[in-house]
């Protein structure tokens, strides 16, 4: 069975979007080449084989760093099955750089629910029961266009917002997807203020009120959690 590069695993509450408040196990994958300037997990961007460690060393590390463990999918599922939270969030990095089909299928078979957080720049390979959160990354330094197959697979969109142009982007994205018949007006679109800044938060509230969106405010940070 193939292995996945895992940077860290930790239990917390999901603090964003639809699953806000759900006790969750986060599995953070290593590698991303999208290049978002504001990324707070840049330590996950590269997979240098010299930084690979054993599972126990990865599981015990306390600092955010670029070490990671290559873990066989069956072993990873077995370990996650022992953790108390029922919900498993697969994030990164960019988790959809990898085929997550068996990983998510086996997690569901083990009694878990799964969620993927992705940039929407790659095809999404996962179980049909997996909840997919797409945070569209458009015009990033990595140069990837938005993947429309990923947008059609999304169960929700969570748009990082720092300026009015970000709101305009998600309004146009919603229009295109609705015109193509892939979304309905009830499709959940979340606006998430970058860095929780007051200016970005006010912009999100204003735009959500005007356009029927929702605001995601990273509740876990207010609670002092990961």
Short account of what is shown:
This protein has helices at 55-60, 73-81, 101-109, 148-153, 164-179, 198-211, 219-222; strands at 3-13, 23-29, 69-72, 87-91, 113-118, 131-134, 156-161, 189-193, 214-215.
For the termini, the CA-CA separation is: 31 Å
At the fourth level of CATH, the homologous superfamily of the domain at 3-158 is Aldolase class I
Task: Give the C-alpha Rg.
Answer: 17 Å
The structure class reads alpha/beta
Describe this structure in words.
With 226 residues, this protein is an alpha/beta fold. The chain has a domain at 3-158: Alpha-Beta Barrel (TIM Barrel), CATH 3.20.20. 28% of the residues lie in helices and 22% in strands. The chain has 7 helices and 9 strands, in the order E-E-H-E-H-E-H-E-E-H-E-H-E-H-E-H. The protein has helices spanning 55-60, 73-81, 101-109, 148-153, 164-179, 198-211, 219-222, and strands at residues 3-13, 23-29, 69-72, 87-91, 113-118, 131-134, 156-161, 189-193, 214-215. Strands 3-1-2-4-5-6-7-8-9 form a 9-stranded mixed sheet. Helix 2 packs parallel to helix 3. The chain is globular and about 50 Å long. The mean pLDDT is 94.
